[in-house]
Amino acid sequence: MTKMDRINQRILRELTRDGRISNIELAERAGLSPSACLRRVQELERTGIIKGYRAVLDRAALGTGFTAYVAVGLSDHTKAAQEAFERSIALAPEVLECHNVTGAVEYLLRVEVADLAAYKVFHTDVLGTLAQVSAITTYVVMGSPKDARA
Questions:
Q1: CB 3.0–4.6 Å: which of 68, 98, 108, 134 could bond 75 by disulfide?
Q2: Could you report the per-residue pLDDT of 41-82, keeping only the tens digit for each?
Q3: Can you tell me the distance from the alpha carbon of 117 to that of 125, in angstroms, rounded to the nearest whole number?
Q4: Strand pairing category for 107-113 and 66-74
C-alpha cells in the first residue's frame, strides 16, 4: 500500500483541482523534483489510488443543465429486484450516478437532462415503467455553491 504522507496528499489535492497540471508545475507545488514527483504520481496510479482523470463539463452548455437527485424506493427488497433495477438504470443515459443507500429508500440517483419537460419524460417513461419501483421522490437542484464532482 502506498504511504499517504503530506506530499502525496498535496499531489492528490493539486491533481483533483487540475488533472492536466504539468508535472513540472505539480512538482513545484508539492516541493519535489520533477522526477520524484512523476515517480510518486505513477505509484499512486499503479496502486489504484488515482483511478483516472476526467474533464469537468459545463452541463448547461451541453444542454443538460437541469439536475435532480431522485430517491427511489423498491417494492421488493430482494437481491434479484435490486439487480434488475440496477441493470435498468445502467441503460439510462440521464442517470449519471446511482447509489445504493441506507435509510427510507434503496437508491439515490443524480439525473441530468435538458429541462423539466425532459425530466418528466424520464420520470414517466423510465422510472415509471420499472416494476421494482414503489416510491420516487425528486429533489430539484436550484444551485450548487460547492460542487467538486468532475
A1: 134
A2: 999 999 999 999 988 888 889 989 999 999 999 999 999 999
A3: 12
A4: antiparallel
Q: Show the domain range for 74.
A: 59-140
The strand pairing partners of 95, in sequence order, are 111
Residue matched to cell numbers 443538460? 64
Query: pLDDT tens digits, residue range 6-29?
Result: 999 999 999 999 999 999 999 999
Residue 30's H or E segment, with its range, is: helix 23-30
For residues 98, 101, 106, 110, the Cα torsion angle rounded to the nearest 10 degrees is -30
Q: For the purposes of burial, counting CB atoms within 10 Å of the CB of 70, is it exposed (0-12), middle (13-18) or buried (19 or more)?
A: buried
* 91 and 31 inside one domain: no
Strand partners, 66: 113
